[in-house]
Amino acid sequence: MRLIENFIGGEYTAGQGGKTFEKRSPVDNRVIARITEAGQADVDAAVRAARAALEGEWGGLTLEQRVDLLYGVADEITRRFEDFVAAEMADTGQPSHVMRHVFIPRGAANFKVFADVVKNVPTEAFQMATPDGRGALNYGIRVPKGVIGVISPWNAPFLLMTWKVGPALACGNTVVVKPSEESPHTAALLGEVMNSVGIPKGVYNVVQGFGPDSAGEFLTRHPGVDAITFTGETRTGAAIMKAASDGMRDVSFELGGKNAGIVFADADFDAAVDGIFRSAFLNTGQVCLGTERVYVERPIFERFVAALKTRAEAVKYGRPEDHAANYGPLISQEHKQKVMSYYRKAVEEGATVVTGGGEPAMPAELAEGAWVQPTIWTGLPETASVVREEIFGPCCHIRPFDSEDEVVKLANATDYGLSTTVWTTNLARAHRVAARVEVGITWINSWFLRDLRTAFGGSKQSGIGREGGVHSLEFYTETRNICVKL
Ligand code: NAD
Fold first, then answer.
1. How many whole angstroms separate alpha carbon 281 and alpha carbon 278?
2. ipTM higher than the 0.90 cut
3. Residues 378, 238: one domain?
4. Mean pLDDT of the chain
5. How far apart are the first and last CA of the chain?
6. What percentage of the chain exceeds 70 in pLDDT?
7. Known catalytic membership, residue 254
8. Which residues form the Aldehyde dehydrogenase domain (predicted)?
9. Residue with the nearest Cα to atom 35 of ligand 1?
10. Do 99 and 244 fall into the same domain?
11. 284 and 394 share a domain?
12. Same domain as 251, residue 294
């Protein structure tokens, strides 16, 4: 069995406290790795290493040298593509084609794109008049924020972690990463990449462990951490925000969602069914941008529900490496219990179960895995808990609507505000609705189409701040103004 260690100052090290925990496969519940849990002393060492790198070789590099190194990281990830695919599949149990086409290539892209951004984005300059008539010139310079604490989740571990590490390093910071306890593999593997391309020691550090009273909390409370970027549940974000308030550290939060999909009767029907199917069930519904509330205009409601049911019932369960499979398990038994509790609650609250609602019959060798059926409900009021709360599973509630105003109100009646997907062939209406839905990201006639230069983040309780393109520079650097009297 594999032992996964912390990565501190360029070296893999066992935790100083000697504690370990196990990682089980979502597919069959076998223990696949033991992980050394970082204690306070390990987090101290990681933060010290990150500070030393900042004040040492890394801090002394030119922008061009840094950019070249990050291109090297992207190339090395691509060279070791199969290792990353295997590591991520082991942790998440998701089909290999999702890893190959989305999650791992995006990990490499996260280093390339932000290397390009820092190379090309100018800073501001203002000339001003002065009483003596000679004037003054103001110009901004960007400086790294320092040591960045990166706390990431398990649902697309490598993509989401590098989405933060890429821009943080491009901007000249150093990082201490705490990956989810459910997905320790790829963050650890990235340490090998950093060493082999010559990223100076201490620039990239990984502390493994849990949140409360473990590596996550030790890192977010650490006075040596200058800013914290976090992706995960809204509740966890609140705890981290409290920790960050000591020392006035800046935070960037990408949090939960309860996203609405809106389908008008004039939509390209097949494209809309396909789009909503993907947004509800890709990655077994474990996508923050996924759709758990679907609103369909009444004239096509019955037909739409029937078509989505057909698609949901056609998923092929299987191991990630099984090419015929297109649907994986949930991340863990614990998460399965949570999702199953919502499946029961939906029935208690009076839902019509269109399809699913339980566990699939799996062959004996997969019977212990975290499998649940894709599930569709109708007939619930908007007050029902499965319509209000983020489940983070392969399920959605579908409700008919009769007007544009009504559906905008329904979509906005939530504490969350991450994303929405709108399906219509009426261009004017598409723009109108997009401007009125209170979310950070709207897709029209598409879903999860990502240009990494665009602003990414949530409204309301779905996040604080924006990352992506120049927006990442706002968080990962500090702009200093220099005023020169001429
Ligand atoms: P989580 O909040 O349980 O855990 C996320 C990370 O925080 C983990 O590494 C965990 O160990 C750590 N953590 C937990 N408690 C902590 C504490 N008190 N202090 C410091 N660290 C702590 O989230 P999860 O279950 O891993 O991920 C699923 C959630 O993430 C969903 O809510 C989903 O919507 C959200 N998510 C959001 C986005 C986005 O971009 N907005 C993307 C992906 C996932």
1. 5
2. yes
3. no
4. 97
5. 67
6. 100
7. yes
8. 13-482
9. 232
10. yes
11. yes
12. no
Which structural domain range is residue 346 located in? Answer: 259-452
Beta carbons of 35 and 20 less than 8 angstroms apart: yes
Q: Model's pTM, two decimal places? A: 0.97
Would you state the structure tokens that stand for residue 143, as one six-digit string? 């400086």
Pocket of ligand 1 (CB under 6 A): 151-155, 160, 178, 180-181, 210-212, 216-217, 220, 231-233, 236, 239-240, 254-257, 288, 390, 392, 418, 458, 463
Average pLDDT of the residues in 374-396:
98
Distance 181 CA to ligand 1 centre (A): 10
Helix axes 157-170, 185-197, angle to 10 degrees: 40
Which of the listed residues 43, 233, 336 should we mutate to test ligand 1's pocket, taking the one with most ligand atoms within 8 A of CB? 233
Own/partner long-range contacts of 164-167 (Cβ < 8 Å, ≥24 apart): 164/229, 164/231, 164/467, 165/110, 165/190, 165/204, 166/70, 166/110, 166/111, 166/113, 166/114, 166/115, 167/110, 167/114, 167/117, 167/467, 167/472, 167/473, 167/475, 167/476
Handedness of CA 97, 101, 102, 105 (dihedral sign): positive
Query: What domain count does the chain have?
Result: 2
Amino acid at 399: R
